[in-house]
Prior knowledge:
The protein has helices spanning 2-14, 31-50, 56-84, 88-105, 107-132, 135-150. It is mainly alpha-helical. Helix 2 runs antiparallel to helix 3, helix 2 (31-50) packs across helix 5 (107-132) and helix 3 runs antiparallel to helix 4. The radius of gyration is 19 Å and the shape is elongated. The mean pLDDT is 89.
Amino acid sequence: MKNSTAKANAHAAEAGQEPPGMKSEYRLPLLIPGSFLIPMSLLLYGWTGEYKIHWIVPILSTTLIGVGDMFVFMCINLYQVDAFTIFAASALAANALFRSVMGAVLPLAGQQMYETLGLGWGNSLLAFLAIGMIPVPFALLKWGEIIRKKYSVSNL
């Protein structure tokens, strides 16, 4: 982050522009490895559980799911705090409410999903959903500043 800010400030100084300082998007780089780690770990967990590979492999894959989840969770929360400034608490509360509702509703489908599809394909389905979300960090890095300016806090 500090390196990105320094590079952006140096580039602006060379161009004779005002230095941009810290941008919210500088909080997102760890989102990229996290977004790849989650589906890979879900696939590893599902198929090693399906084929009854040694118990340590699924356990280690859940560790990788946790690492990827923490990368994503921390980056999104930091991004929200930077993007919504004085309304950061409201943004984080909305995020927490959404996660809580999903955490309450989605497990209701879990047992039936695993009974129908099994561990391998059930986790593959979750991994495919996670793979569908991989473009989001790249989109935020590319267009995040434009989106934040278009829908700035003053326009709420």
